[in-house]
Amino acid sequence: KSLIECNTNEKTIDIGLTVRNTAESLENKDANIVLLIDVSNSMVQNQVELNGETVTRKEAVLRSAQTLTDKLLDVNPDIQIGIVEFSTDTNFYDDEGNIVEDGGGYTRPGTDNDARILTDTLTNNRDTISQALATASNDVMGAQTNIEVGLDAAYSLLEGTASEDVENYIITLTDGVPNVARGTGIDPEYSAETSTPTKNKLE
Questions:
Q1: What's the pTM value of the predicted model, to 2 decimals?
Q2: DSSP E strands: which ranges in 87-196?
Q3: Which of 18, 37, 86, 132 could in theory staple to 150 by disulfide, Cβ–Cβ 3.0 to 4.6 A?
């Protein structure tokens, strides 16, 4: 892993990651894997080069996720995979917390609606996984980054699946740091108010 660029104005860090193929080690092991995918504005608005093509960060991540899941299932068809997307909620609410359908109201970042589970359960069905990734490609969510709620959604997919014979993994695919957490508003300063809950969730 190496630092490619640190942009303090945009509050982004580009990191180059070299991945070595260790798929053979999973050949005789079952695993539950949740791909937790950031679909916030920075993933849509910023572009990268992928195999000679200019694509958004979001598209690059989704293509890589499809390649990864295909390769994992080639090695072990019994591996179970789930897909979760996260950013912030796009709905508008009235003072009672009801969704406003015809305009008006206000947004409510920092709730469970900041993440969406795109596979009902863990699955090894390739069509279901591909459809979930296609849904993430087409979905439009909010601008901000709530990793904490995304992790909660990923944990809910894994709940009750742990055993001595099965490893659980969450792979978080994001380009930034959290600027929203559960119960907080948008934090433009990227302060401990939003980063600490995420850190505690990871520990």
A1: 0.82
A2: 115-117, 166-173
A3: 86
Cα–Cα separations (whole angstroms), residue 169 to 15, 32, 33, 37: 21, 6, 5, 14
User: Where on the phi/psi map is residue 51: left (φ > 0), alpha (ψ -120 to 50), or beta?
Assistant: left
Determine the Cα–Cα distance for residues 76 and 196; give it in Å rounded to an integer: 36
Question: Does residue 145 sit in helix, strand or coil?
Answer: coil
What counts of helices (H) and strands (E) characterise the chain?
A: 5, 8
Could you give the CA distance from residue 191 to residue 134 in angstroms, rounded to a whole number? Answer: 33
Model pLDDT for residues 16-31, shown as the tens digit of each residue? 555 555 555 555 678 9
How many residues are listed for the chain in this entry? Answer: 203
How many C-beta neighbours within 10 Å does residue 127 have?
Answer: 8
For 48, the token pair is 């990268």
